[in-house]
Amino acid sequence: MAKKVQKVIPNAAVPPAEGRTVTIEGENYLELNDAMHTFYRRSMGELSPFFLALRDDKKIIGAKCSKCGIVRVPPMAWFCPDCDFAPAKAVEVSDRGKMLFTPPITYFANSMFQEQVPFGRGRVVPDGADTGLSVNLYTTTGILVPGIFKKGTEVKLVFRNNRYGKITDIFGLPASELSEKQLAKKGLLESEIDWEAAVEPKMPAATKKAAAHFEKAFKNLKKVVDDLNKCERAKKDIEGWKRTILVKTPGGKFVIAIDNGDLSVKKGATTKQDFTMVANNLDTVLKGLAYEGSLTEAIMKADLWISKNIEFMTVFKLERMARSLARSRK
Ligand SMILES: [Zn+2]
Q1: Which of 85, 125, 174, 312 gives 20 to 30 Å between its CA and that of 118?
Q2: Domain boundaries for CATH 3.30.1050.10 within the chain
Q3: What is the Å distance from ligand 1's center to 66 Cα?
Q4: Cα distances (angstroms) measured from residue 289 to each of 106, 152, 271, 284
């Protein structure tokens, strides 16, 4: 199989070759998208052994001072500044460690990192090292929310299948989400992780009241979706995107279908979903799509759960549709 080549600038970040008319003080001006290219090669210098070991050997290398014995990861100093620049030697450290502090989570990233959100970013101190390695953090339990990683949480560092010699070649998962076998394996690959094993949050029991509320709220949802579907600006937000989402709420289930510019909802279930959403209340989804609330915020507050971290992108697109419709009404 041909290896997928990643571009320095992702395609999604390259604007289309088009322009727009800008009107300033009654005069029309043409504005075109253009580009300035400046590509360069960056030497990793003294950090090369570290990045080469990540890429080629799935190993994490630190620099151990020959005098005081401190192990720095990454090896940012091959001569120890604390010991009159005594030489350090390369040592392998563990791919298991502990969080140095509770990491912040990024939900809104610029276009370069949009495919990675949400991710935590924090320092993991690998066993055998004395400093923290800054890595991205994920979960296999659905979407990353506060509370999964805390100061002291045990972490396993996992290697990407396609590695380039960058710090994003590795990422951290909570050790508690992995099996003993996975934890023991050196150079564990992302393809050896079960990303489909997310456990759905428990919902309150379905009551007559909840079912009645669902019927009412679903009618409103259908109206909002119809409006979104009539808005050209909103349709553009899901251009080229295709997803089937099964949404579970205490009052009932429904399916959201995103089909290249078309959005629709249908009552009932499906087995062909790309991912599952669990909402504590249909209103959470309704408000998000009606631009009266935020789906992202609902996720952060655990009022809304999605089964795959990477599908946050889809939630983001839905939210953008809501914003587009609200703006087009101004
Ligand atoms: Zn030293």
Answers
A1: 125
A2: 208-328
A3: 7
A4: 22, 38, 24, 9
- Considering the segment(s) 208-328 as one domain, its CATH architecture is 2-Layer Sandwich (3.30)
Tokens 């210098």 sit on residue: 45
How far does the centroid of ligand 1 lie from the alpha carbon of residue 65, in Å? 5
Helix or strand (DSSP H, E) at 303:
none
Calpha distance 49→165 (Å, rounded):
10
- Output the six-digit token pair for 41: 């090669």
Q: Is 155 helix (H, G, I), strand (E, B) or coil?
A: strand
- Rounded Cα distance between 2 and 106, Å, is 32
**Spacing, Cα 77 to ligand 1 middle (Å):** 10
Q: Which of 31-45, 101-115, 157-171 has the lowest mean pLDDT?
A: 101-115
The C-alpha atoms of residue 53 and residue 286 are separated, in whole angstroms, by 49
> Does residue 169 carry a pLDDT above 60?
yes
SS3 265: strand
**Ligand 1 center to 60 CA (angstroms):** 20
Q: Summarize pLDDT for 182-204 with one digit per residue, the tens.
A: 999 999 999 999 887 778 888 87
Ligand 1 centroid from CA 76, angstroms: 13
Contacts of 291 (CB under 8 A, 6+ apart): 322, 323, 325, 326
Pairing of strands 242-249, 275-279: parallel
Question: Distance between CA atoms of 300 and 144, rounded to whole angstroms?
Answer: 8
Residue range 285-302: mean pLDDT, rounded: 93
| C-alpha to C-alpha distance for 310 and 275, rounded to whole angstroms | 10
CA distances from 260 to 179, 180, 238, 315, 316 (A): 39, 42, 6, 15, 15
C-alpha 64 – ligand 1 centre gap (Å): 8
CA of 42 from ligand 1 middle (Å) equals: 29
What is the crossing angle of helices 312-328 and 282-289, to 10°? Answer: 50
- The single residue listed with the structure tokens 């790309």 is 274
**What is d(CA 190, CA 170) in angstroms, rounded to the nearest whole number?**
9
Kindly report, residue by residue over 135-148, the tens digit of the pLDDT: 999 999 888 989 99
